[in-house]
Amino acid sequence: MNKQIDQQAADNIRALAVAMVEKAKSGHPGGPMGGADFMHILYSEFFNYDPSEMTWPFRDRFFMDAGHLSTLMYAQYYLLGNYKKDDLANFRQWGSNTPGHPEVDVARGVENTSGPLGQGHTMGVGAAIAAKYLQARFGEWMNHKVYGFISDGGIQEEISQGAGRIAGHLGLSNFIMFFDSNDIQLSTSTDEVTSENTAMKYEAWGWKVVTIDGHNHDEIRKALTDANNETEKPTLIIGKTIMGKGCVTADGSKYEGHCESHGQPISNTDADYEKTLLNLGANPESPFDIYEDVQAFYKNIVAEKTAKAAEKKAEITTWRNANEALATKLDFFLSGELPELDFSTIEHKAGLATRAASSGVLGYLAENVENMIVSSADLSNSDKTDGFLKKTHAIQKGDFTGSFLQAGVAELTMACVANGLALHGGVIPVVATFFVFSDYMKPAIRLTALQELGVKYVWTHDAFRVGEDGPTHQPVEQEAQIRLLEKLKNHSGDPSFLALRPADSAETNVAWKMALENKSRPTGLILSRQGIKDIEPQKDSRYNEALAAEKGGYLVKEVANPDVVLIANGSEVATLFAAAEILEKENNLKVNIASVISEGVFRLQSKEYQNSVIPKDKPLFGLTAGLPVNLEGLVGDSGKVFGLDHFGYSAPAKVLDEKFGFTGEKVSKQVLEYLQTV
Predict the structure, then answer these.
(1) Mean per-residue pLDDT over the chain, rounded
(2) Is pTM beyond 0.90 here?
(3) DSSP bridge pairs for 458
(4) Is 347 part of the annotated catalytic residue set?
(5) Per-residue pLDDT tens over the stretch 32-61
(6) Which of 12, 13, 276, 487 could cross-link with 36 by S-S, CB 3.0 to 4.6 Å?
(7) How far apart are CA 649 and CA 470, in angstroms?
(8) Of 543, 471, 475, nearest to 507 (Cα)?
(9) Which residue, 108, 57, 116, is CA-closest to 87?
């Protein structure tokens, strides 16, 4: 312990944060200035990782919730050697390694992409669950910690309730979160928007809570020591800090605790930039320098971290030698690879709802994929993830040997937790709810896509045929929203999402195959509540023909030189078969039917293949239970799509089919009317 060097290091972080924002002419300097003391003590004395192998699976992890405090992370990691001076000088600039809000960059210490408040620490909860899950299977030696950092805004976001409830309920003693409580927000002080007792709230959820002076290094040190020794509960360290700690005016007077220092360069406030740097011990002529003593101190810290990691690795090697089979399994889990699976062996009764077919697949996966965690938002008996649950048991406090996470009614929290599970590694996360409630999950889905995580979303009750539950439960516009993500490229240049709406049980098997093999992007399986008539195979087995769905779209009914090509996905494919039977028998038309499970994947195929399924020189008619835009890109300007342009109504599903025009007879009439126009 060296109080002088500790203070210098914290001030160095403050100065670097101020300088980054000043040079970029945008950013948030005040918060990083308040959080600098905690970060320095955490990383210099408590945080365990291997500087020579940043991706070491058994490292501690730090999840930033307050992404606008990115300069706090960049400055701290700069002291540790993870960033260069030019990286900090190019904060928020094109092509830099220091974006305005952190983006996953494990090689430099950034574990998660954060920005929308509340999601970062919830991903941390997911990572802590993953760590406990793996520890239950491989031994107590796997005892790394997950740290979170949250601000007043994150505490206020509603998702914090879900994260706090789940972490406390499960007793995530490996999760330690620092609450940077400076009582200042972007546009107001916190007393203008809340009067809740945060400590009591977290204690009610089952957390250990301690309140400290967030600038007192001894209090930070004791709080972190106690948190690391805690074995029953997650810990919340409420650090009372000062926004803009260290800011001064031109005459050297303190200028701390002001709202205006939250989200703009301090030169735009009543504080003085150069005088503040001088007050913090920095050189205004070279503001991105590491102080000489601090640099020497951190050089030793990095060496100590490397040596400590080597000791831990030796311990792990001893365990590996004594547990070769377990070690092989652990390596397989961490590799992200799949065991050999044969989806053709999963048999289903005739005419199942695709949610029920999915249940059968999940039962198979429960017995064959040992590192899958499935979660449901209090709907397992309805979204049919109970097919998985029946083969395992729920994760509980003190018992992480199960593989099912009961998330409760908290769709956004559940999705964010899944992102954290994926970020930690070693597990395959699956989350499920009704499709209409994907609306609650959209912020997390977006970050799943942005972070390129292989989370599997299972959405059932996919259309107005939910029936009596009425318009609040009947998805109409949701498919269009989700499929937009198939048109949006991620930073790797790939479609950012894979949306799959299978037409029958065989396609459901194939959809699950596609989902599991899709490891670097999220997948959504959109499944029916009601039973669907199975598609009859044209030649081979139905499953073998359904494998063509891996190309995104294929012909489930094909004749030579068709008069019209009918296009759909999901439930509507069966309706097209009913319509085609009428068109053929009563109107002597030749009909092809295309099942397009994913337009995004279909568009990746060769133009020749696309044209073989959906020829541009033929009349094209699409049927969708959602908005017509779902299929308009496939039928083109000369084609027609029949879909919904209104919300649903409460009535039995068959009545709605009749009223909305989704019967074979009514669709055949729609097709005939269309053919009269071409």
Answers:
(1) 97
(2) yes
(3) 432, 525
(4) no
(5) 999 999 999 999 999 999 999 999 999 999
(6) 13
(7) 5
(8) 543
(9) 108
